[in-house]
Design brief:
171 residues, alpha+beta, Thiol Ester Dehydrase, Chain A, two-stranded parallel sheet, 3 helices, globular, binds coenzyme A
């Protein structure tokens, strides 16, 4: 199927695996606070980049970040740690996609891996003029992908209800 707004972009369904991305960073002194622990803001930036990577791979278009659901930081990362950010599109809607990003820290001396953070982000596909673009449907393949696909629809309803409440509050 061809995207009517952007004929060069195919709307043929793509699998979750096609969007899956890994991004690896080493924590350098400039990424840390005075305690030599990774800055939360730096990690948020990396999460945004890792999420965009998966969204780009699925949409094959420019994307903008529409929202980030809440973020928890379970453990801290120190200078020299290796941070791995694993991302994938959980579900594609019309012009938007929910992307899940899971962050791990590897201690390559002690050979341990710990879960640092998880986040859900929504990206919207746009063209070079910033006009929204339809995105292809996603095909979840594994039972985990299927579960994330179903959960993403529930989270979207919650986000929409929250947005409606915020609109009402703004008047
Ligand atoms: C995100 C953006 C494109 C949405 O455009 P809009 O015209 O306000 O959006 P609409 O209400 O018509 O919704 C368009 C789509 O975005 C989704 N969306 C909009 N706001 C959203 C939010 N806060 N969270 C999740 N999804 C959102 C809608 O669900 C809809 O999805 P669908 O097409 O898959 O059904 C627009 O607000 C924007 O450009 N924001 C700035 C993005 C940016 O610069 N990001 C970088 C951070 S500074």
């Amino acid at each position: 199927m061809v995207n009517p707004a952007s004929p060069k972009i195919s709307l043929a369904p793509r699998t979750t695996a096609e969007s899956r991305s890994d991004m690896t960073e080493i924590v350098l002194p400039n990424d840390t606070n005075p305690l030599r622990k990774l800055l939360g803001g730096r990690l948020m930036h990396w999460i945004d980049m890792a999420g965009a990577l998966a969204a780009h791979r699925h949409a094959r278009a420019y994307v903008v970040t529409a929202s980030v659901d809440h973020l928890d930081f379970f453990v801290s990362c120190r200078v020299g740690d290796v941070v791995v950010l694993r991302s994938q599109v959980n579900r594609a809607f019309n012009t938007s996609m929910e992307v899940g990003v899971k962050v791990f820290v590897e201690d390559y001396i002690e050979h341990t891996v710990r879960h640092v953070s998880s986040a859900y982000l929504t990206f919207v596909a746009v063209d070079a003029e910033g006009k929204r673009q339809r995105v292809p449907p996603i095909v979840p393949e594994t039972p985990d992908d299927q579960r994330r696909y179903e959960d993403a629809a529930r989270r979207r309803s919650i986000r929409e209800a929250e947005r409606d409440l915020q609109k009402q509050a703004r008047g």
